[in-house]
Amino acid sequence: MNRQISPRYLVVVSLACAGLLLSVIAGFPYLALLISPLVALALIGAALHRWPDLDIELIVPDRVVEGDEIDLMIHAGSRVGVPWLMLDLELPPDLEPIQGTARTIITIAPGQLVKVKVPVRAVRWGVAQPGRVVATGRDRLGFFVTSTVHRPTKPIRVHPRDGARHTVLRPSRLRVRAGNHRSRTLGEGSDFAEIRPYRRGDPQRSINWRVSARKGSDWVTVRHPDRSGDLVLLLDTFRDIGPLGDRLVQRAVRAALGLAESNLGKHDRVGLLDVGRNIRWYRPRLGRLHEARLIDALLDTQVEPGLRAHDVSQLPLHDLDSGTLIVFISGLLDEVAAQLPIELRSRGHEVVVLECSPDAHHQPKGRNAELATRLWRLQRAAERKSMIERGVAIVEWKPGDPLELPIAALERRPAAFR
C-alpha cells in the first residue's frame, strides 16, 4: 500500500507559508488575513485526515461460455471511511467491458464493505487472466492519496459456444462395459433387435407374453446391449495460421472440446494427446474430474512450434487397449506430423483424421503466389490420397461448417477403415 501527500496539499501549504512570510517581511498584516483561509484549510485537512487501510478483492467466475455477459465483482472495504475511491480494473483482450470502461468511482463509509459489479463480455474462448485492480483513494479535500494494487491469481476459463455437445463419434469396437452406444451383438439392452422362440437359458423377464399367448409357445424379445468405447484425441499444435479468433489450432481445440464433452457424456473413456514441442498425455478415463482435466488442458493449448515432429515411437500409445479409436485433429501443415496417422494405422490402431481446412486463409496475390498455392494444394491432395490408401479415413472441416457435418461423414466411413 502506497501513501503520499498530493501536489494539491503541497501547493496550499506553499502558498500559505509564502503569504505569511511575505506579510512579516513586508509588514502587511492584511496579507496574513487574506491567506488565513489557506492556512485553516491546510491545518483542518491535516488534523482530520486518517490513512485508510484499503482491502481490495476481485471475484471472478470459474467457467463461462464464449459470448456470455458476466459480472466481475470487486469487494472494497476499509475501517476508515474513504470519501473518494477510484477502482481501475485491467482487462485482457479476451474480455471487453460492456459499459465501455472498467473504471468505477465509489465512496466507502467507515467499516463498510462495498461490492462493485464490472459487467464484461467474453469475446474469445481460452484462459482469460484479469489484470490488476488499482485502487486509489483520496480524502474530501484531495490532500492525501492512498493507493493499493490487487493482483488476482484465479483465471477465467472461457469455453467455445459451438462445442457441438451432441456430436458423438462412435468407436467401432465397443467394450463389455455399460454405455450409451448400441452394440451390434445381441443381449440385454434397450434397443429392440428381434423376437425369436424361447431357448434354454433365456431369462424369464425377456419373454414376450403377448406374442407367446398368440403363438401358443414361449417367445422372447432380444435386444441390443448398450456399450461404451475408448477414444483418444490426438491434437497437432506444430503449425498455426489464420486471423485472431479463427486460427487453425483454435478450430482444432473447438472440435476436440466438442468430442470430449459429448463422448464422455455417452460414458466413453476419452484420452487426450497434445503433440507439439512437448507431449501432454492424458490416458482414457471416465468421470467429471477427468472431463474437467481434459477441458482445462484443451483451453490451455498453445502453439509450440518445434524443429520437427515426434516419431510415432515416442508417443505414449503403445499400451492402448485394442479397439481404441484415435482421432487425429490437425490442419496438416507439418509434413512430418501428417505422417503420424499412417504410422499409427500401420501399427494396428484405428485412426481417423479430422482436417481443419486452411484453404480459406490462403488468398494468393500475383501469378507466382497462385502457382505456389496450386502446388501446395496438390501436395495436400496427395497426402490425403496416401492416407486413404493406407486405411486412414479423412474428412475435411471447412470454416463456417458445423462440426456435425465432418463427424457424420466419419460415422459413415466404410468398414475398410474400421
CATH superfamily of the largest domain: von Willebrand factor, type A domain
Provide the number of structural domains: 4
Strand order of the largest sheet: 19-18-17-20-21-22
CATH architecture of the largest domain: 3-Layer(aba) Sandwich
Gyration radius (Cα, Å) is 34 Å
Low-confidence stretches: none
Query: What portion of the residues fall into strands of 2 or more residues?
Result: 25-35%
What structural category arises from helix and sheet content?
Answer: alpha+beta
End-to-end distance: 64 Å
Largest sheet: 6 strands, mixed
Question: Which CATH class of the largest domain?
Answer: Alpha Beta
CATH topology annotation of the largest domain = Rossmann fold
Question: What does the model show?
Answer:
The protein has 418 residues and is of the alpha+beta class. The chain folds into four domains: 6-48; 55-159, Immunoglobulin-like (Sandwich); 190-224, no CATH class; 228-417, 3-Layer(aba) Sandwich (Rossmann fold), CATH 3.40.50. 28% of the residues lie in helices and 31% in strands. It is built from eight helices and 22 strands. The chain has helices at residues 7-26, 29-48, 209-215, 248-265, 288-299, 340-346, 367-389, 404-411, and strands spanning 2-5, 55-59, 63-65, 69-77, 82-89, 95-97, 103-108, 113-122, 126-128, 133-138, 144-150, 156-159, 175-182, 191-197, 219-224, 226-228, 230-236, 269-275, 279-285, 325-330, 350-356, 393-397. The protein has a six-stranded mixed β-sheet, with helices on both faces. It has a five-stranded antiparallel β-sheet with strand order 1-11-10-5-7. A four-stranded antiparallel β-sheet has the order 2-4-8-6, with no helix packed on it. Helix 1 packs antiparallel against helix 2 and helix 4 (248-265) packs antiparallel against helix 5 (288-299). The longest helix is centred in the C-terminal third of the chain and has 23 residues, at 367-389. The two termini are 64 Å apart. 29% of the residues are buried. The model has no long low-confidence stretch (mean pLDDT 80).
